[in-house]
Amino acid sequence: MIDINKLADRHERLHKRHQSAFGSQLPDAGVVIVADPNFIRTFSGQVTWATLLNLIARLYKGIRHIRIVVDSDVPRLSHVFFPNASEGLRAASLRFLEQLNEDAFTIGEGLPPNDGPDWIWIHVGAWDPRHPPGTAVAGQGWLAFVNDESWRGLASVSNPIGPMVAACLGTAEIYKALYPLSDKREQTRIVLSAFDYSADLSSNPVLPASIHLPETYIAGCGAVGMALLLLLNSTPAISSGSGLHVVEDDALDDTNMNRCVLTILEDVNSRKTKIIEERLDTARLALKTHDLKWQAFVHAPEYSDALNFERVVSCVDKYSAREAVQYDRLPKVLLTAGTGDFLLSVSRHVLDDGLSCGLCYQAKDPEVGCAIATEGAQRAFEVPVDPSISFVSACAGVLLGGELLKEIIPELNIGRIQNTVRMQVLTGAAKEKARAKDPGCNCSSKYVAIGYKNTWRSSDVADEPSSPSRTIT
Ligand SMILES: [Zn+2]
Questions:
Q1: Spans in the chain with pLDDT lower than 50
Q2: Ligand 1: distance of its center to the CA of 359 in Å?
Q3: Whether residue 252 is found in the same domain as residue 394
């Protein structure tokens, strides 16, 4: 028997922490998710739709009823993620909701009756004026749209990034409707390019028809890691013969359900590595999982060559794990993400560029010595649980995946972040920043710079700073 309180664990904590900004929860809220009949037949439409269902269902305790409105004859397109084999988009969608649900919410189809709960409406694609006001979301290419129809003029492409970001932002709108903000604001309107974090419709380069994913290491496969993998799996052009290594030594528990986007309820207590093997296209991605801590993994003899670790994507959250990922093998480029409440950050670190590393400004894990190890003292030293929620960590993982694509596709290098981008997911506001090193951080030591240069710079042919990167002012 699943405990709904545990599924919604972070949800409750987050609301408690921001009680002054949010009003009380709508008592009997339901969500109606409506598919635009034309947009839903496109790849972008289906990725927006599938990601939105995935994230909305994981809000659990906030929602009592979910209804979908979608034509029954819409074929299910390949590379759109549903963790089931049901035929057709409608059937796959209903099955997915069941796979995430155990009496947490009711599942319905078609327009809701008038006499029921408070319905919150969200449209994938264009808003249908016959329906009550709601939110409209869509993505196309690198662009995400909320309550803005500029996407209609864009060519349909097979890039899941914009659609997935749009779904995250759309779920944030649902959250704000479930817990109405205390100060009434105007309807959100967002145009966001995940390519350069501007609102510019032209910041939308086409992905190459074929993308070779070189050997890549992903440390950690929780909320952010799974969203990153979902993005790579949903990008039809990607294939890898070299190996996508995922290193994770944890099992899925019920409190992870609200944000681990590749999971379904029956996965609780399974190893995370096993879950991703089941859900992903392992052959196409050349997925290799390692049920180990990063520290143990890099000390295995077959991974002892430092030059293997040209690019590492860190999806771990503890300081000690971040430290191991940064220093145990000194990756040439380290991409990492973090979340805190409704904020996320995505960062790119090159240890000798003078900018902040993956540890600068990170709070250290508390160390509890014998002298203070009484139960009460231990509690006082516990780090508060980061209550970040599905749509925030999923957005972080998707943007992190976008940064990986910019890293490995030379013609897209120009879009990559120089150091860090932060985003407030409730508003879609994103800002890039180049932060100087924290002088107290180990990365400021000349020995670290020397070690990095000895590993990576001696054989460099053409690399930073000569390769293109946008300058942040
Ligand atoms: Zn540092």
A1: 368-383, 461-466, 473
A2: 5
A3: yes
